[in-house]
Amino acid sequence: MVQPYYEVFREINELGLQLAYRTSPGGYQPFHWHEELELLFPLNGDATVTIDGITYQLRRRQLLVIESRQVHSTNTYSDRLMILCIHISKPLLERYLPDIELFRLHCIPDEITDAQFPEYLSLCQMAEELTRLYIEEAPAGFLESEGIILQILARLIRYFSVRSAPELSSADMQARQRLRNIITYVGEHFREPISLQEGADLLGLNKEYFCRFFKKHMGLSFLQYINEIRITHIYQELQNTDASITEIMEANGFTNQKLFNKTFKEIYGRTPSAVRKGHREEQEQPLTAAPLPRRLP
User: Fold this and answer.
1) Would the pLDDT of 167 be above 70?
2) Contact present, 46 and 57 (Cβ < 8 Å)
3) pLDDT tens-digit map of 185-225
4) CA 204 to CA 207: how far, in whole Å?
5) Which CATH number fits domain 170-281: 1.10.10.60, 2.40.160.40, 3.30.870.10, 1.10.10.10?
6) Domain segments of the chain: what residues?
7) Distance, CA of 191 to CA of 118 (rounded, Å)
8) CATH architecture of 10-163
9) Vertex 254, ends 269 and 177: CA angle to 5°?
10) What is the number of other CB atoms lying within 10 angstroms of the CB of residue 13?
11) Angle between helix 207-218 and 170-189 (nearest 10)
């Protein structure tokens, strides 16, 4: 699946390590999925992460792991939040843990055991070191970053891998695959008109059942989800292009100005023009990074 929205990844090596730092405000990322294992580490603010329908609080300098193909969304609460995001490819995981399908990497801050805590603290400290390398633009930074990420992966496999639970029922497996299919479809076609019937037909469901199915598993209606996807792309284009707000809106599938303004403000708390103005003012200020502490608080 194409990397969503505002994540711009750096390739660390050809084996499938990718590293990204998100620094733009308005850090809402609607539900999506990908094949890669994902590690999230907020540096200066808090976030909520929803994974397969369960919402977790992720506080600053806490590490959380999202497994391959899990449907998830993130929401941050600071206009200046920086969050470290690491993607590790399935082939790389299989290289070091050939029977990876028999295991899952379970690393959720609120579910860390007392026995795991020293290792968890070590993982967080290594994530901080990755950030220091990035901020300081250290010589051979990519080489050092690769080594640190592989150490993180080794510790995750050694201390946070658990035998997979019994297989999901066929109904649950079918539901998850349907969600991945519809999320992928919307990600590829959000700039075009998409109807409820089109979504229902894609999954082989009648329209009424499709509406109930989507709301049950995603927590919002199908049309709300489509508009959220559109809004997140519009948010980025407001900052990265000089096109008019109307042009950006229409290019991303919105035809109703009133609905667009309402949805945008609900998600970001500001109008599109205020977001663009704020971004331009930020660009005129020198970018500085607060020093990271030597120890976790």
Assistant:
1) no
2) yes
3) 999 999 999 999 999 999 999 999 999 999 999 989 999 99
4) 9
5) 1.10.10.60
6) 10-163, 170-281
7) 47
8) Sandwich (2.60)
9) 90
10) 14
11) 100
Give 41's strand partners: 84
Q: Which residue has the tokens 């990600």?
A: 187
- For 105-123, give one letter per residue: b (16+ CB within 10 A) or e: bebbeeebeeeeeeebeeb
Query: Residue 237 pLDDT > 50, yes or no?
Result: yes
d(CA 252, CA 247): 9
Closest CA to 108 of 99, 117, 100: 117
Q: Return the SS3 of 20.
A: strand
Mean pLDDT of 124-142: 87
In 3D space, the residue among 81, 90, 91, 22 whose CA is nearest the CA of residue 46 turns out to be: 81
Which CA distances in Å does 61 have to 49, 64, 245? 14, 10, 36
In whole angstroms, give the CA distance from residue 132 to residue 187.
34
What are the b/e assignments for 140-166, b being 16+ CB within 10 Å? ebbeebbebbbebbebbeebbbeeeee
In order, the DSSP letters of 243-293 are S-HHHHHHHTT---HHHHHHHHHHHHSS-HHHHHHHHHHHHTSPP--PPPP
Number of H helices, E strands in the chain: 10, 11
What CA–CA distances, in Å, run from 294 to 61, 130, 255, 291? Answer: 12, 13, 51, 9
Distance CA 21, CA 131 (A): 9
Residue type, 123: L
Q: Which residue has the tokens 């995001």?
A: 85
